[in-house]
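Below: protein 1.
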Amino acid sequence: MIRVGQIKIKNDGNTIISGDELKRLLVEKAVKRLRVKAGDVEEVLIRKHSVDARKKPELFDIYVVDILLKGNSEEKTVKTCRDKDVSIAKDVQYDFWENVKGRFDVKDIQRDKGFGADKKVVIIGSGPAGLFCGLELAKNGFKPVIIERGSDVDTRSRIVEEFWKSGKINPSTNVQFGEGGAGTFSDGKLNTVVKDRFLRGSEALDIFVKFGAPERIRYESKPHIGTDILKNVVKNIRGEIIRLGGEVVFECCATDLVPDENGHIRKVLTTKGEFDADCVVLAIGHSARDTFKMLMDREVRMEPKPFAVGFRVEHPQKLINLSQYGIEEPKALPASPYKLTATTHDGRGVYSFCMCPGGYVVNASSEEGGLAVNGMSYSARAGKNANSAIIITIDPTDYGDGAVDSGIEFQRKLEKKAYDIANGRIPVEYYGDFKEAVLRNAGEEEKSKLCGENIDLIERESFSPQMKGEYAFAPVHEILPKKLNLSFIEGMEKFGKMIQGYNSESALISGVESRTSSPVRILRNEDGESVNVAGLYPCGEGAGYAGGIMSAAMDGIRTAELIAGRVLCAR
């Protein structure tokens, strides 16, 4: 096929183009570039799509497409058209065993029909890392057992909805724990900055589509699924793992790891009995604090790591659309996302994280007496508000004494404050009130750095929080230490210069956003194994090696390859 890039189609923001009409337009523009006839085109496939809003409100959809021609020489057509954005499309696909061969330098893989079936692989956690690791192993001859402390996704959804209504937390099944992991109750964003040299990202997207995600996630520049669709996807993946001979056990929390006389993990003790294991994949989430404690007791090598904390910030989605598109309510464009980054005068990073267009702020707590928030969107992203975490980077020097669990204790301290100031409800404060309270006790030099032009573009009377879980107005400014509050304000003021009205006094601040990533890293070697415990494979976000659904899924796939390679080399 021939790949044609930079195909521009004008988008007035309101005219919705049907699928057939879009393909007609793409073919029309592509054949002009290729100098062939429309009748010569046998097939057209969209490979990438993005929106160019650099000259808003003049907007363009930008496409990359693959064209299959009838009986034409591809090389000749590409050479004749002399277009730098036209090339031969390379048909590259993910290959599990090619990746294994490359990593372990195995020239020829000889596998009998039962390869891997006799190896007992126990995966702790059914988030993206655990599910994708389990699926790849099951597809390639293994019979993995996935244990999950929380409930299946249907039961989990009912429990979470009840929590949002009543405020009564279930410590085992909640927004953090249960089938699909924390990402199940999020926006379902599938973009990642992880390089995809081994095509694990492509494999992850193919799996998402195969099990229920829309086809467009393959080519959108900022793909997302939405929590409503993601729930069905993870359930379908579980069904495939079971069909292939694997097992998934819910409401089953790992309580200990038992090694043999050589220090190799051989059993996993759980609340539902023990499981024999030749290897154990630690695909725990970033909130599995009791599991981190168990690992510390087992002297598994870990270290505290940098992470970030902050608040959720809400604006009317119309304000964000106007800033990004030049149109408040476009009918032919999705609710606009944004990405913001800044560096404070003392070198600290402040940035947007898990931005949810048309989304909800959710109570994402997992422990009694503590409150943490997150963002969530449904697939339509049709809510009235945009929300994003605005978070500040911190490292072990900010929060602890070097102890492995010092970051966890820092999180707990912040979450207890957030819980207490609003009696267990999500605490909310207007940005103007937050800023005034923080700067009241700041020095003149600090005030001069933080007091920029402030244009309030939000009508406070008609603007209210969009949340899952009860909320109450409260002094959110009391949650973080003063230095982090000042960094947050400095970031917000800088963002007001990037998106007009972002630092409006009536923007809503809620907190605390404390579960952005794991506060610890479980150390592993190049073969994916714990540096000091044989048979233990730390994997995904909780282990400190991922930062979202896609990177966690990719790390799960990588871990499956490493386990298969290890078994292959031992035969």
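Below: protein 2.
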Amino acid sequence: MFVLEEELKKLPDKPGVYLMHDKTGTIIYVGKARVLKNRVRQYFQPARNVSPKIERMISQIAYFEYIITDSEMEALVLECNLIKEHSPKYNTMLKDDKGYPYIRATVYEDYPRLLFTHNRKKDKAKYYGPYTNVGVMKESLEFLRKNFKLRTCNKNINGYKKEGRPCLYYHIGQCSAPCQGYITNEEYIKNFKSALDVLDGNVTNVVNELKGKMEEAAGELKFEEAATYRDKIETIKRIGCRQKATDSAYEDRDIIAMASADDEAVVQVFFIRSGKMIGREHHYITGVAGEKTENVIASFIKQYYLDTPFIPRELLLPCEIPESELIEEWLTNKKGQKVYIKTPKKGDKGKLVELARKNASLVLIQDGERIRREQERTIGAMNELSKLLSLDGLERVESYDISNISGFESVGSMVVFENGKEKKHDYRKFRIRSVKGPDDYASMREVLTRRFEHGIEEMKEAAKNPEIVTGKFSNFPDLILMDGGKGQVNIACEVLEKYGLNIPVCGMVKDDNHRTRGLYYNNEEIPMKRNSECFRLVTRIQDETHRFAIEYHRSLRSKEQIHSILDDIEGIGPARRKSLMRHFKSIDAIKDASVEELTAVEKMNAEAARKVYEFFRKPDN
């Protein structure tokens, strides 16, 4: 049993990470500390000075756990990983998880290639990017491969002619076929270096060479060929001049600034590579109400650069952030060379930071209405539902449905909505085991019994060992919605009463056209306004529950329909079944075949042939 006062006394005088859990065992906050004993105790002091958000978090803490580390740096890395894994409710969260692509030049190969990748590894390859516009990046990659006739295959090429024929890319003029020895290594490397020059922005030599070919073709009256060279020149210029700004220091740096409103924020990042601005991106962050700008930016940096393959030499920020030296050290270790965090107030760097801030404000203003609409249809709708049912703290809703056709392959579905949004990771399917025939009530009883038995068992295991992370079923809902009226609600209430659980249950009542009409709760039907967000939310939940159940049932029916009698023969799997049907064309022909004829089929051996032969000679087959 967790006793707060006793556990606070046990806190060690060491660095580490602490995890706050609510009554369901869910991790609601992850933090790190230089000294766990001092940091964790601060949350439970009467005179604590914390933001309203953290005060709400503290009120929901049922117990905490901690992980000791050897250093504060290890604690920082572990904190970042745990936040990413668990997405705790009260941590400031980066909403989008964008990964930017690179062009990977395999310069270490005899016949190098240009490849698309999202992962920048520490290898001998040369990387270009990150590219924030994937379309432009793919267009550039395709153009360079085609026009410099670079290979895309992964063959091990030594320059000598190989057996076989060149691939399709050679025949359509997009590869020089080094695999067949049709081009020398020197010529191929010259073409490859020209492609790299374009990526580096050094297009003068390439353009001059193409201009010479264009003028030569025009002089020979080959105007179509000259036009092709002209188009290539324009494309190369566009690729080489894609940068939007330059920086005389020729450094790699990211410029970061933010704008916030209510509980939402936008962080703008400008990417400068080799002194040239190659693009910008904005990121939405939630849970910023009451948070200081410097804390939000620090949280963003830790989450954003945790998995980002490229870390620049400098980060330019609008303000000093807490633990900047520690974060600098962490980024330096990840990059393998010194990384600097700076807060310029004037000069060109200061202007770039201000430009990023203005862009963030513009994005927030432009998307403010969209954010508000999203808030109304999700959290706002949940608040309406809470008021309608006189329930407090309504966050997680689970909805259940049964699907079958005349009792065939009955299945149950469990759909989860949190704060008005689908939480598809928590959806569950149940194949009915104990019920024969079309008995929806008995099927629903089995589904709910299995769901809550699993949850209770998981909670018992977690109570025995606090280090166990709670499983698939131990997060109980604040409200259960049944796809039906009084009968289905009563079934749910019986199951909950059996396990001593106090969870409100509500039925979604339909009209004569099978559309949501109202809610059945506490033995009475509660009408809903059709133009309300609450009504739209309940309709979405009901439709999603139907969809999930029907799709599962359809998949089981499809599997049943493609079942072959050959599947019932021991040792006959999909490969042998296909070979038999391909050879004999029908089940009747297989039945009439001798052991010798069956053995002659591809993938069949004497033992498998004997089993097939004997199977079809059983009295019931």
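The chain has a mean pLDDT of 82.
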